[in-house]
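the two lines:
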Amino acid sequence: MHAPRSLLTRVIVGVLSLLALGGVLITLAAFAYGKSAARQSFDRLLVGAANDIAESINISDGAPVADIPVSAFGLLALATDDRIFYSVRDTNGSLLTGYDDPEIASHVGRDVTVPQFFDGRMQSDPARFVTVVRRFSERSYSGNVFVTVGQTLQARDAMALDLTRGALLITGLGGIALIVSAFVVIRSAMRPLERMAQELSTRDPYDLTPIRADGPAEVAVMGHAMNRFMGRLDRQVGAMKHLISDTAHQLRTPVAAIRAQAELAIEDAPDHREARLERLVRRTRSLGNLLDQMLSRALVIHRTDNAPPMPVDLRDIALEVLESQDYQVLAPEAEVELCIGETAVIVLADEISLSEAVKNMLANALRHGRSPVRLGVTPGEVWSEIWVEDAGPGPAADLLDRVGQRFERSASSKGDSAGLGLSIVRAVAQAFGGTLRMETTAQGFRVTLDLPSQTDSEGTQ
Amino acid sequence: MTWSVWRAICACLIALWACAPPLAAQEAARTFKAPGAHPTTELLVRSTTDIGILGPTLNAFVEAHPELALRYEQWGSNALYSIARAACRGEGQAADVVFSSGVHQMVDLVNRDCASPYVSPLTSALPKDRRWRDEVWGITQEAAVIIYNKALVPAADAPRTRFAFLDLMRRASARYQGKIATYDIETSGLGYLFAFMDSQQATTFGGLLEGFSRVDAVATCCSAEIIKRVESGQYLIAYNVLGSYVESVPHANLGVIYPEDYTLFLSRALMIPKQAAHKQAAALLLDFLLSAQGQRSLARSNLVQQVDAEDTPLPESAKRFISIDPTLLVAMDRQRRALFVQKWRATFMADTSVP
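prediction for all of em together
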């Protein structure tokens, strides 16, 4: 198993291999350049020496005679350690003076007006040669004299290497500077990531509080995403905790009561049994309601965190709630009046959560209020409203402050409410950026759920 | 004449040409070994230096390296050059060390790829103008001097510079007629080299030639010979004599002048031929000659002359070292040499017609 390579290693390896590749290319280029520079400069020396010798040739007694100047060899001796070849040949190619090497003598180009360079060998060493031609048109001698000068390549190679070395030295220094600065830059760029990694690795796995999400944009994005994720996790864990503790807390009493009624029903006299059974049924129904609400609340909280909001027409919600006729269980004789308009009232929300909320609002009105009950939708520029209104006076003022808290039940609660209804509505309102409003109107008491209007997606779904 | 006769004549001529120089050229030979030693390797040294002069140094060498014996052959410089070139072509036995005063010939041998390179701290310490390609090294330091017979030449006449020498010859008193000697550049490689270097150093050379012809100067061979005859009074003044030889012969009557306008210094060159059988032993000899001990020994033989120790030290600008570099190849050039010798001969021959 390999430990995963760190980003720093990756980037450094990348930079190093780039530099290595560049170094190889620069070496090759510098060597090629050095070779050609050395060739050019030493070729000039060769031509200079050959011209010196050619200049020294005179016709004496009908034959060309070279009075080789020391300066010619002084020029060649500038390449300190190189051996020298020279030969002076007449127009027939026979040697007048200098070294005799038939192979080198055969290199005579057709063009006699420019120096002819060629590569060859001096004994075992590679060498560079030039032939210049001096043309005589004298009474006693007419024709060409070929002056060939050559030199081994030590000085050229040394110069090429020297230039290459110089280039490499500069490149190397530049490379080292690049590596060091790359290291520093990468290190400083990586620091927020390292800090975050450090923070995460030392963090208690049960700690879901937000982490620091500053630093560069890329890192901040990760931080924010992680914080959002952890926040959701935190809320869900919280909801789960609530659910469990509520369930435990809320179910213990009704279940104990049911068991007691059932035991009494068995032990009591047969004539009381009827009343006992009726009480048992009431208790059981009440327990069922409680369970419904608790599960509904858990559902709402789960959905608001998990289901993405969609455009929803509030009128559809109102119709759906009315048509489901769940309320008839609560109040079979009650009449609910629907007040909706012609135009769609669109908000961004989760349909199921919203339905649950409205069902609870309606159930509250039926349970605590006075007929007639009305369910309505009011469109608005900024806020769209869905409301439930009854003809009663509403709860007492001090109670208004407390309604909507979990398990807050008024004294007038009839014993079959869990007190979760408004808490569900409030949770839904918060989840979709809305508010819960309670007010006394001319008609009676109205509970309104305000949600932000979704104006840019027209039309119903 | 028939074809066969021609062929026979040609064959004879070729045989003569091929055999004659080596037979004629080796002047002397001696084997050196440490007393009581049983050497395993015999080093062949071919040199132009007199055995008598170099002997003490060679003895010191074999004492320092008793595993080596040293066969020393003394050659004339031109003959040494031709046998070394032949050996380089693979003809005949190659020497392990070639040590010659004809430095231009040594440079030519190196240029013909006949030498093998060697580097040691001692060779690297040599100045740039005393080595080339790490294949030829200048070992000695010997001046080309003017000598005169102190008994026969008045002190006022003794020429301290070439200008004085020129003036002396131009006065052309009968006393010096036929009594001034110098090397014959046609037979002596060293004489040619000195004359050639003179011709490059200053315009006085033309005047000197003219002077020589005026006094009916003698062009002859060999330093030792000339010194001996100046000592005996046969010659009064000799020009461009190798100063190192003066000490080795009786010289009670000799005055030695380091010309003050400039004095040429020669550094005998040593090389290890490519075909040498014992290159490592040869390198030992080279390092020995360059070592402090070797240089002291050479100085005792007057082969390393410290001019500054003399009574009249030469100014630095007057010391002209013959630098061992490719420009010496010009001295080897056939046509250049022919032109030079022609000019030389024309001047020397001219003197007979002068009344």
